[in-house]
Write a structure and sequence with these properties.
Layout (H helix, E strand, L loop, with lengths): L15 H9 L6 H5 L3 H7 L2 H9 L5 E8 L5 E10 L10 E8 L10 E5 L2 E5 L2 E2 L3 E2 L3 E5 L4 E4 L11 E5 L2 E5 L4 E4 L6 E3 L15 E8 L2 E7 L4 E7 L4 E4 L11 H4 L3 E3 L2 E5 L5 E5 L4 E6 L11 E5 L2 E9 L3 H10 L6 E2 L2 E2 L3 E13 L5 E15 L3 E9 L1
Parallel strand pairs: 21-27
Antiparallel strand pairs: 1-2, 1-28, 2-3, 4-5, 5-8, 6-7, 8-9, 10-11, 11-12, 12-13, 14-15, 15-16, 16-17, 18-19, 19-20, 20-21, 22-23, 23-26, 24-25, 26-27
Length: 389
């Protein structure tokens, strides 16, 4: 009579639950190496039990996910890990950023919307070839960094804004606003313009509804220009922002990127300056203390353990000089074999320590910065978010 072999031990001579808790403490950036040690380790790396143990032991990490879209509308996905630096800087910085590219979606759409919900990143809608609207939903499970196809949208969607509240993904465009449940696949209408009271007695053209800090905001045109209004569920009405309902306009709706830290929504404005909106006081301020000369072109922000992290594009050093020299010497202005070579930019990362002075002023100090990768100059940031796993 044959008996099945017992499952291989994770760590010899240790009970499986104790071994699992030991392995759960290992940093995420080492998991790929750990998975090739043994079949049992590889199996554990793909098990929800490992991440349940990480949560139980309070040893989860903030991992950053960055998506770049090329000039040909193809998306590249990167993970940014903190890796210990064996040679700390004189300022005491003891880690560096490790950038790892992960496989893209097997059948991607163009101009999709990307939203974070828990430990999963959802990629919704967009265009298929022939500019047909897509109903596809792809899901990246950040625990295992694997893609799976989610429940499709009931209809193809493109040119919309997405935000998450209470486990649902809210989709908004100029014609309607829908709440999508990624578990059931249901799509329900919300905040219909005919059901919500007008702002200051006037019916507004509501360009977009967007979600920030668990609240609904809208950018509207009231006939005098663009302003931002807030939905107040207790009165079922839109209200103005700022003291005496000043004409406050928050433009992070258009950048589709912001993060909340201690009740302040931070973002990079159209000029590359860092700004913060105090949700309680409804005050918009520039972040001061950071080098006044420093701007963050097309910058994106994330919250990593209470620090403000920024990624931005920076022109390669010496590129302007080399370009000018080539033109002066009549070298064809960068053309090679009849084709123009696309220039590259550097992608930089910075961590900023924040101080809220209590009087509404916001101050920050750059603690650490590093170049993390290079990309074509036509690339754009599509998504940047911090996930705790």
């Amino acid at each position: 009579m044959s008996t099945s072999e017992p499952p291989p031990e994770l760590i010899p001579l240790l009970p499986s639950d104790v071994a699992r808790e030991c392995l759960a403490r290992i940093p995420l950036w080492q998991h790929p190496k750990l998975s090739i040690v043994s079949k049992s380790n590889k199996s554990l790396m793909k098990s929800p039990l490992l991440f349940s143990s990480r949560t139980k032991l309070n040893c989860t990490e903030h991992v950053l996910y960055l998506t770049l879209r090329s000039s040909s509308n193809l998306d590249s996905w990167y993970i940014l890990y903190r890796k210990p630096d064996p040679n700390p800087s004189p300022a005491g910085q003891d880690f560096k950023i490790l950038t790892v590219q992960i496989p893209p979606i097997s059948n991607p759409s163009f101009q999709s919307q990307i939203i974070l919900l828990g430990t999963k990143i959802y990629v919704l809608g967009g265009f298929l070839s022939g500019f047909q609207p897509s109903s596809d939903v792809w899901v990246l499970d950040c625990r295992f960094n694997t893609w799976e196809q989610g429940l499709s949208l009931p209809m193809g969607r493109f040119f919309f804004i997405a935000g998450a509240i209470d486990g649902k993904i809210h989709l908004s465009d100029t014609s309607c606003n829908k709440a999508f449940d990624p578990v059931s696949g249901r799509l329900e209408e919300f905040l219909r313009s005919e059901d919500v009271q007008a702002f200051k007695g006037k019916r507004l053209l509501l360009w977009y509804i967007f979600v920030a800090g668990g609240r609904f905001y809208g950018n509207v045109d009231d006939g005098e220009g663009n302003i931002t209004v807030l939905y107040e569920p207790t009165t079922n009405a839109w209200i103005g922002l700022g003291k005496d309902e000043d004409r406050l306009h928050l433009d992070f709706c258009y950048h589709r990127n912001f993060c909340e830290i201690d009740g302040v929504l931070y973002y990079c404005d159209s000029f590359g300056k860092l700004r913060g909106f105090n949700v309680e006081n409804e005050v918009l301020k520039d972040l001061r203390g950071v080098d006044e000369e420093l701007i963050f072109p097309d910058g994106k922000v994330a919250n990593v353990g209470g620090r403000l992290v920024v990624v931005w594009k920076k022109e390669k050093r010496g590129e302007k000089e080399e370009e000018g020299k080539g033109k002066r010497n009549g070298e064809g202005e960068g053309e090679e074999n009849g084709e123009e070579k696309e220039k590259e930019v550097d992608i930089w990362y910075a961590e900023i320590e924040l101080k809220n002075l209590g009087d509404g002023d916001l101050r920050g100090k750059i603690l650490f910065s590093q170049k993390i990768l290079s990309a074509s100059s036509g690339s754009k940031f599509v998504h940047f978010a911090s996930v705790s796993v």
